[in-house]
Amino acid sequence: MQIAVGADHGGFPLKDEVIRAVTAAGHEVLDLGACDATPSDYPDFALLVGRAIQEGRADRGILLCGSGVGASIAANKLHGIRAGLCHDIYSAHQCVEHDNANVLCLGPRIIGPALIAELVTAFLNAQFTGEERHLRRLAKIAAMEKSG
Ligand code: RB5
Fold this sequence. Notes:
By secondary structure, the protein is of the alpha/beta class. It has one domain: Ribose 5-phosphate Isomerase B, Chain: A (3-Layer(aba) Sandwich). The chain is 46% helix and 15% strand. The protein has helices at 15-24, 42-54, 69-75, 89-97, 113-125, 132-147; strands at residues 2-7, 28-31, 60-64, 83-85, 103-106.
């Protein structure tokens, strides 16, 4: 898969760790910045990653900000983006299997490089099950998205 990666200054310190984990899992990286730790705004990177997925330039995305919270709030404003802030392994794969998440959000001010690498691997290895109950719930989310 093609994986879009974006990080603000709070996420930048562990962006390379994410890129290493994506590559090690056999996927390609679309690096959308930031390129250094200069203060920046996490919604800008959420937009870049979200647009890459919406436009078919990426299959999934990984976003980093200090806590992961701001990035997830911003990404979930975009049509068709289902972003999960996951700091445990179960959530990192279950968000794909049940919720068809297409963006993983991480907070390097909260967790360290070893866990980040494992979370990325769990997220990328997971596949949506497509079970009826999950499709039904996702359809309800899509309807909420449409109704504003
Ligand atoms: C930036 O200081 C910080 O607010 C941001 O990276 C993120 O943690 C927001 O949720």
